[in-house]
Amino acid sequence: MTDPLVIFDLLLGLSIVALALAVLSVRDLFAAIVLFVIFGLLSALAWVRLSAPDVALAEAAIGTGVTGALLLKTLHHLRYVTGTLDRPEAMNLTPVTPVPMPVLWVNAAFCGLIALGLAVAFLEAPKVGPGFDALVAEAMPASGVDHPVTAVLLNFRAYDTLMEVVVLLAAVIAVWQVERGLSEAPAPHLGEVWQGFARLALPAIVVVGTYLLWVGAEAPGGAFQGGAVLASVGLLLLLSRFYVPQPAHRGIARLAFVLGTGVFSAVALLVSGGGRVAFEYPLEHAKTLILLIEGLVTISIAVTLAALFHGREPVALGEEERRNDT
Amino acid sequence: MMLESLSMILIALGTVFFIAGTVGLLRFPDIYCRLHALTKADGLGLALIALGVALLADSMGEVFRIILIWFFVAVASATCGHLIARYERRSGEGPSYD
Amino acid sequence: MTTDPMTFALFLPLFGAMAVFLLPRASVAIGLASVAATCGAVLFLARDVLAKGEVMTALGGWEAPLGIALRADGLSVTMLSMTCAVGLLVSLGALDSFKGTGQMRTRQYFWPLWLLLLTGMNGVYLGTDIFNLYVMIEVIALAAVGLTVLSGTRAALRAGLEYMYASILGALLFLLGVGFVYLHVGRLDLAGLIEAEPSGALSAALALMVVGLMLKTALFPLHFWLPAAHANATAPASALLSGLVVKAALYIFLRLTMYMPLLDEIMVTSMGVLGACAVLWGGVQALRAERLKLLVAWSTVVQIGLIFIAFAHAGPPGLHESWKVAALLILAHGVAKAAMFMAAGRIRAELGHDIIRDLDRAPVRPTLAQFTFALAAISIIGLPPSLGFIGKWSLLEGAMSSGYWHWVVVTMIGTLLSVAYFSRVFAGFLRFDRMRNPVAEHQGWALADLPPLTLALAAIGLGLVAAPVLSFIELGYPFGAAP
Amino acid sequence: MTPDMIYGLTGIAVFAIGLAGALCAQDRLRRLLALKLCSMGAGFLLVVAAWRVPPDAPDPVPHALVITGIVVVVSATAVALALIRRLQSLETRDDD
Fold first, then answer.
1. Could you tell me which residues come within 8 angstroms of residue C471 by beta carbon, excluding any fewer than 6 positions away?
2. Tens digit of pLDDT for each residue in A95-136?
3. What angle do CA C166, C171, C175 make, to 5 degrees?
4. Quick check: A180 and C66 CB within 8 A?
5. What is the CATH number of the domain that holds D53?
6. Distance (Å) from the C-alpha of residue A204 to the closest C-alpha of chain D?
7. Domains contained in chain B, number
8. Angle at C170 between CA C169 and CA C171, to 5 degrees
9. Do A160 and D68 touch (CB under 8 A)?
10. CA-based, 20 to 30 A from C456: which of A107, C75, C344, D35?
11. C103 shares its domain with C61
12. Chain A partners of C61 at a C-beta cutoff of 8 Å?
């Protein structure tokens, strides 16, 4: 008990658990989403305490920021569809049959037991376990970058990262597929003050996103955090109607979605040969290649996240019907 | 040492403002009063904390970034306050004067 | 450029998916070409594995604990070949299912999603790193959900959402398990797990990962999402989901049990018991199903249960043999079930419905599709000389020789049940007296019947070459041949 | 009492809460939120496992894994939300 910050940790941990409970128990869905966002931000704070600033940034930008926007947009759409847009008091969108109390208790007891078992297993495990520390430290000079997390993401475990971008690509294809022809809820009109704010914020966000990407080579930051921040540019543009997706833009959007994955996998394949395997960047070009991949992946992530927020594939009105008729 | 205690005092003062804002959020009767408490107190609280942290910064670059953060948070929270009040007024709930 | 076939088996479908997404108008040509090219890469890989037993590539040149390695042995090449071959035939079948301009958008989305699915599955079969496996099952999950809801009907969307929730939860349980593995072992490659000492954290990790995989592969009682999802998807999607996708999680499960020898009598037996419940419950539900595709979907639940019984049939001491029986059944089911779903889709397309009770009143007789269905059913019921028969026979033999008679009883009951529920369908196929106004010019077959027929014939024919298939599966087994 | 212990238990608690919610929540959106809680719990465990006593830098590999996990989960969330939107539109239209 030497460190007074332990009290802070305890308080933070308890608030996080309390917020998690509140997210599930509060009746209003809007409140649940807002509480979830707060929960995410406090978790990010906890991760800063655990000296994981990269993860905290990613969580705040993607796990909380973009996800929160996605959730709120969906809630708006659901309220529009069910005609409860102007009745905030209509908290549940669909009539929900309450779960009987005994079921709730059994469920709680079951999950409590699982938590107990996991907690015992966790406390039993070595305090500071073995890890990759030594291996990473040894391999860092050959990685081409100075920041360990970036080195792991873009070099040592680049294969994982490529597949992660593939997951994003799969998501945007699936979303376009699911939402084809879906009518859109009208965007709320937000007024001049907000428009002014958007004009001020847009260039600033671009700068911040680019900075995060650039600084990732030697300090916390990188493609994913930068991409998420840049995605918020897209969100602002879409919300403020400075940009309205047009059917004619589909081709370029598709290109932007696959740009990161395409260049990443092409580079991975092209560097191989002559005794080298896929993903094995030659040391003298490693930094350049990683920067190239990161930059393009950032663009793809930003566009993809913004497209996930927008949802539907922009299809000309009636195009779907026309095609079905012929 | 002097600088450190000064920054401590500033941060503590900022925290007091945040607590006052939170109390206002919980205790005030309608949305407009709550917004008033929240935005005022938080704006000032954040400014004090930013000042306190800036005193501890190593370089001018860091000070510059802290000022930027303060500026954007202030602008964003002002816009948010405006949006909330605007939504409330449009949905027909005027301020209550009793 | 590298000449490593494993890298190509991963990258070819990925490039194909991107090209198809960029050029939707050329989707059919590019899609078919990519699947065929992937088949070629797998053939090269099979040649390498035959020569060397196992093949490894450390991606990025970083050796295993730090980097991620690809590894192929007999089992993984068997799974890869099944995936690619079944995938190619389903792709050919999809040409007919999604033809016409009205289906243009469905077609345009089918191809990129299916190629991403192929990427993910190939990644699973070549993966050696448990976190990488987590990312791969997520690639599979998103693509599979996209395929489930391809028809866009309300029932399909509902089923797709349930499937999505089950997938996310299963993957997150697996991820938490990965966290516990790291906590205890400090590395994430499968090979590192062998040397790990047993501990609470490792048991927790194993339990979490196994439950997550059970949810993904739909083992009773975590099968709730499967029947609706597989029954409501379009025919090619159902064939892919039922024949291939559930096998990815099963494969990871088999791998984990090879590298994480923590399984004791209780755990293995409880797997078998859950499998037995799946066989019985799924059988009863299949008997009650009103629609043909729903019946086929329930039969998938039964077959998954059977695979788990096969895994457990000789207890922990027999694990080094019983995984082969499980692998054989996985292979048999993958081929036969894809054929069956496509045949069911063809029957539905010809009849306009797939209500089992009304099969015998149809004005048309899609004879070849019905024949294909019956052939696939032979393998799934387990009649000689099909591959399903060989699998079931080895199961029964192994269980009898190790004295686990209860598994014999359950398997026999399951077989009888499957005969019973498939008979409902055959009765509809074979009765002609209730047919209304037969359409004279209907030929009874179409070109689109050929891909499923090929698959069904393969399911039967593979039984005749079961011995070489078995010895191929054993190649490069990490713990050598049976002691 | 060290930070890793506190936050490790926090993570396990959050995962269990999310699991309970995912098993019995009725509302579709709420169930998704519960699953998101599960993902955060798993993230906590990995970040905690990477932690080293302060002068030592934490292990960067789990950090990279959690970042990957966050992106994967947001993708899955987006697809689930699209399904929810589409489904609600279909259901409301059919009810009329």
1. none
2. 567 778 888 899 999 999 999 999 999 988 876 667 888 888
3. 150
4. no
5. 1.10.287.3510
6. 24
7. 1
8. 90
9. yes
10. C75
11. yes
12. 276-277, 279-280
What is the domain count for chain C? 3
**C295/C330 same-domain check:** yes
Q: How distant is the Cα of D43 from the closest Cα of chain C, in angstroms?
A: 8
| Chain B touching partners, 3 or more CB pairs below 8 A | A
Q: Count Cβ neighbours within 10 Å for each residue of A271-302 and write b for 16 or more, e otherwise.
A: bbeeeebbbbbeeeebeebbbebbbbbbbbbb
Listed as own residue / partner, the contacts of C315-321 with beta carbons closer than 8 Å and 24 or more positions apart are C315/C265, C315/C268, C315/C269, C315/C402, C315/C404, C316/C263, C316/C264, C316/C265, C316/C268, C317/C402, C318/C398, C318/C402, C319/C257, C319/C263, C319/C268, C320/C479, C320/C482, C320/C483, C321/C398, C321/C482
Q: Does D82 touch chain A (CB under 8 A)?
A: yes
Q: Where are the domains of chain A?
A: 1-97, 131-326
- C183 closest CB neighbour out of A129, A155, A254: A129
Report the residue from B79, B86, B91 with minimal CB separation from A197. Answer: B79
Q: Assess whether C155 and C221 both reside in one domain.
A: yes
Nearest to A211 by CA among A57, A44, A48: A57
d(CA D74, CA D36): 9
Q: Is A128 within 8 Å of D53 when comparing Cβ atoms?
A: yes
Per-residue pLDDT of chain C (483 residues; tens, 9 = 90+): 777 899 999 999 999 999 999 998 888 999 999 999 999 999 999 999 999 888 999 998 888 789 999 999 999 999 999 999 999 999 999 988 888 777 888 888 999 999 999 999 999 999 999 999 999 999 999 999 999 999 888 999 999 999 999 999 999 999 999 999 998 888 899 888 887 888 888 888 999 999 999 999 999 899 999 999 999 999 999 999 999 999 999 999 999 888 876 677 888 889 999 999 999 999 999 999 999 999 999 999 999 999 999 998 888 888 888 889 999 999 999 999 999 999 999 999 888 888 998 888 877 888 899 999 999 999 999 998 899 999 999 999 999 998 889 999 999 999 999 999 999 999 888 887 776 666 666 777 788 889 999 999 999 999 999 999 999 998 888 765 443
Range of the domain at C180: 128-261
- Total tally of structural domains belonging to chain D: 1
Chain A CB contacts of C15 under 8 Å are 262, 265
Question: Interface partners of A (3+ CB pairs, < 8 Å)?
Answer: B, C, D
What ipTM goes with this model?
0.93
Q: Domain residues for B7?
A: 2-90
Q: Considering CB atoms only, which of C60, C109, C180 is closest to A156?
A: C60
- Asked whether residue C392 falls in the same domain as residue C309, the answer is yes
Domain boundary among C200, C231, C261: C261
C204 touching chain D per CB within 8 A: no
Kindly report whether the global pTM for this prediction surpasses the value 0.80.
yes
Q: Which residues of C touch A159 (CB under 8 A)?
A: 59-60, 68, 132
Q: Is residue C101 located within the same domain as residue C237?
A: no
Boundary of a domain, candidates C261, C282, C310: C261
Classified as helix, coil or strand, C69 is strand
Which residue segment(s) compose the domain that D18 sits in?
3-95
**Cβ of D22 and C154 within 8 Å?**
no
